[in-house]
Amino acid sequence: MTSQETPPLTLLVLAAGMGSRYGGLKQMDPVGPGGETILDYSVFDAVRAGFTRVIFIIRSEMRKAFEAQVASKFGSQIEVGFAIQDAADIPQGFSIPTQREKPWGTGHAVLAARDMIDTPFAVVNADDFYGRDSFAKIAQFFQETSGQETSYAMAGFRLANTLSENGTVARGICTIGENNQLLGVEELTKISRTAKGACNTPPDGAIRELTGEELASMNFWALRPAIFAQLEEEFRAFLSVPNRLNTGEFYIPAAIDARIRKGDASVTVLPTDSDWFGVTYKEDRPGVVKSLSTLVAAGEYPGALFPEGTDRFPR
Predict the structure, then answer these.
(1) I need a surface site. Which of 54, 76, 154, 260 has the fewest CB within 10 A?
(2) DSSP labels for 138-194?
(3) What is the pLDDT along the chain (315 residues), one digit of tens a residue?
(4) Coil, strand or helix: which one is 107?
(5) What is the pLDDT of residue 19?
(6) From the DSSP assignment, how many helices (H) and strands (E) are in the chain?
(7) Number of CB atoms found within 10 A of residue 78's CB
(8) How many domains in the chain?
(9) What is the domain extent for residue 105?
(10) Could you give the 3-state DSSP secondary structure of residue 238?
(11) Is residue 4 part of a domain?
(12) In the chain, helix, strand, coil percent, each to 5?
């Protein structure tokens, strides 16, 4: 394959979240003018960018609903698969504490698909809207870096544009060097909007002021199969820290940051002009509905992604 050929591309959708702050399975909440979910728009944009397969990371108890309400909609336009995120899927030599209630996090979710993917793949959250430009840039990156097995990328969004008016959010704050290379990413778990920008209030209570102009990772990654061995190594390191076993989460940004620092991975940051919005809290929903209606009215998306009587996305 030459650098000008487009490799087969897979979209990996992280959809196993519990939705505790939202009050339900936000992955299936209709927010588009035709009853579409946010993840419907992600699949639509992925198909437009040339992706040929989508895999949903879900919990086992969600599979029947996902098959009926999600997979059945896509018809013959993209191959659909499922991978199960199971809390018991941990390396030998480790055990799950009896008091453990949280899942292991997004890095562990990606590992759930390690036996299903042998192509370049993009990772997105099911409850985040990333926009057409983001998917197009990720697909172009894969084409331009074909054969570079540890060359990854991420779509970068301005922090102020990713905050919720209804509570704190977790974001990966990026440090970027020459040629848009990611030097490091720091996962901040409690960021809120302020009059001057934003602030982070970690568990130790030390408030950190942010400008809002920082570039944030929204878990839209362009990865390749080499990442799986790297994630497994970092997951072992994560589990080896005792105080993480009860409540800690293994995040993708932290794992990739570790590989960058070890010098065996490079990540190109792809700034995007796409709008980002999501539904962390139930109160976020009206804003998402309004934003999608605006994009449809502007001609960015058709009024209905699933026209009655057809199994194809409208062009």
Answers:
(1) 76
(2) HHHHHHHTTT-TTEEEEEEEEGGGG--SSS-EEEEEEEE-GGGBEEEEEEEEEEEEE
(3) 444 556 689 999 999 874 444 344 556 788 999 889 998 999 999 999 999 999 999 988 888 888 888 878 887 789 999 999 988 899 998 888 887 777 799 999 999 999 999 999 999 999 899 999 999 999 999 999 998 999 999 999 889 888 888 888 888 899 999 999 999 888 888 899 998 899 998 777 778 999 998 988 889 999 999 999 999 999 999 999 887 887 788 999 889 999 999 999 999 999 887 778 888 778 888 999 999 999 999 999 999 898 876 667 776
(4) helix
(5) 47
(6) 7, 13
(7) 18
(8) 1
(9) 10-156+217-253+261-297
(10) helix
(11) no
(12) 30, 25, 45
Determine, yes or no, domain membership for 54: yes
Residue ranges with strand state E in 177-265: 182-194, 197-200, 208-210, 215-223
The H or E element spanning position 82 is strand 79-84
For residue 14, give the amino acid letter.
L
Asked if residue 194 belongs to a domain, the reply is no
Residue 247 lies in a domain: yes
How many Cβ atoms from other residues are within 10 Å of residue 59's Cβ? 16
Is 84 exposed, middle or buried, given 0-12, 13-18 or 19+ CB atoms closer than 10 A? middle
- Report the CATH number that the domain containing residue 40 is assigned in CATH: 3.90.550.10
Amino acid, res. 82 = F
| Alpha-carbon gap, residue 136 to 150, rounded angstroms | 20
